[in-house]
Amino acid sequence: MVKPFVPQLVYVEPRALDYPLGRELISKFETMGIEIRETTSHNQIRNLPGDNDFQKYRIAKSTLVVGVRKTLKFDTSKPSAEFAIPFATGCMGHCHYCYLQTTMGSKPYIRTYVNIDDIFEAADQYMKERAPEITRFEASCTSDIAGIDHLTHTLKKAIEYFGKSDLGQLRFVTKFAHIDHLLDAKHNGRTRFRFSMNDDYIIKNFEPGTSRQAERIEAARKVGEAGYPLGFIIAPIYLHDGWKEGYKDMFEKLESALPHSSTRDLTFELIQHRFTKPAKNVIEKNYPMTKLELDETKRKWKWGRYGIGKYVYTDREQEDIKDTLGRYIQTYFPNAKMEYFT
Questions:
Q1: What CA–CA distances, in Å, run from 6 to 23, 62, 206, 208?
Q2: Could you tell me which residues are beta bridge partners of residue 196?
Q3: What is the mean pLDDT of residues 253-262?
Q4: Residue pLDDT, tens place only, 27-77
Q5: Would the pLDDT of 130 be above 90?
Q6: Which of 16, 78, 91, 227 could form a disulfide with 22 if both were Cys (CB 3.0 to 4.6 A apart)?
Q7: Over the stretch 72-100, which tens digit does the pLDDT of each residue have?
Q8: pLDDT more than 70, % of the chain
Q9: pLDDT for the residue 80
Q10: What's the pLDDT at 46?
Q11: Could you tell me the sign of the dihedral formed by the alpha carbons of 186, 189, 192, 197, in that order?
């Protein structure tokens, strides 16, 4: 069982101490006996311990930076929301395939932002501009926000903030099961609580440092019972020997665990495994023993949205994935909505 994240090292921006959450977190980490260092900016963490890149990368992934989010212009988000909302950056998990390895580059440490009222004010402005339409905010584009929320409770505050909203909805996804403190949040059905789910082979081989499949399923059961709208991102869908049986087993376990009430408004998002040339280089550097198949000759080349090409499965393989997983969803969760396959 993966224990809740506790940083080995904490950095703090002096400005973060101007905010109640900043002072509260530093006091908490001092009480826990964690080493605290000062930094001028959450984007400029230097002199991380470690004798080589391999060590420094792993230490960075267990380092938390308490900072202030200066840029409050929210990015447009994934297919699932209108805007990303930035409460944190980075993740303590070690998923071999993760796109954050390339997007975060030399800054794989975890950042949490304490000026949450400023972030809420910016969200409020976006909602007013789009009124009377509903605006959806994605809280996990650059982090697994739930993985640190047992320490910060930022996500819980956000759930309750959007719970009072008429025009906003919150969404996030997590690979962590440490969510009990979120079960009593006053969400009023305005936050979709999603879990990243996969077959057992993929979680065991490519997602070290995250909660196991059974733990995620049990957490999803609790979330369903707490009345949240529930969703699952099946990602990355990865072809391996026995993949059809592995995913069938996953859907069977989900179907038997979830309360019936939560299956009436259930969503699935399907994302096939893909990689870029820069990602492949970073993955092989950070996880030299990975079993992840990264052979370009077995893939189809596809241009990305921002002019960066990526390797995806062949058209025939993609059809097989859509047909197989689509059939499982229809069989086990006939009322669920499949939001997209990409």
A1: 18, 8, 22, 16
A2: 233
A3: 97
A4: 999 999 999 999 988 777 877 888 787 788 889 999 999 999 987 777 765
A5: yes
A6: 16
A7: 777 765 677 899 998 999 999 999 999 87
A8: 98
A9: 74
A10: 75
A11: positive
C-beta of residue 218 within 8 angstroms of C-beta of residue 197: no
**Measured distance CA(123)–CA(73) in Å, rounded:** 9
**Alpha carbons 320 and 325: distance in angstroms, whole number:** 8
pLDDT at 65: 96
Q: Say whether the peptide bond before residue 208 is cis (omega within 30 degrees of 0).
A: no
Q: Which helix (H) or strand (E) holds 315?
A: helix 315-332
- The first and second tokens of residue 94, run together, are 């070690």
The verdict on whether omega for the bond into residue 236 sits within 30 degrees of 0, i.e. cis, is: yes
Identify the DSSP state of 24: H
pTM for this predicted structure? 0.94
| Contact (CB, 8 A) for 175 and 216 | yes
Mean pLDDT of 208-216: 97
Q: 3-state DSSP call for residue 108?
A: coil
Bridge-based pairing of strands 35-38 and 9-12 is: parallel
What gap in Å lies between CA 207 and CA 174, rounded to an integer?
12
Through-space distance between the first and last CA atoms of the chain, rounded to whole angstroms:
31
With residue 55 as reference, give the H or E element that holds it. Answer: helix 53-60
Q: What pLDDT shows up at residue 75? A: 76
Report the sign of the C-alpha dihedral through residues 61, 178, 29, 15, in that order.
positive
User: What six digits make up the tokens of 231?
Assistant: 């969703």
In this prediction, residue 7 carries a pLDDT of 97
User: For residue 78, what pLDDT is reported?
Assistant: 66
What type of residue is 2?
A: V
DSSP-assigned letters across all residues of 62-124? TEEEEE------PPB--TT-SEE--SEEB-S---TT-THHHHSTT--SEEEE--HHHHHHHHH
Buried b (16+ CB within 10 A) or exposed e, 292-312: bebeeeebeeeeeeeeeebbb
Amino acid at 147: G
Spell out where 256-331 has E strands.
266-272, 300-303, 309-312
Q: How many Å apart are CA 112 and CA 336, to the nearest integer?
A: 33
The token pair at 138 is: 């994605």
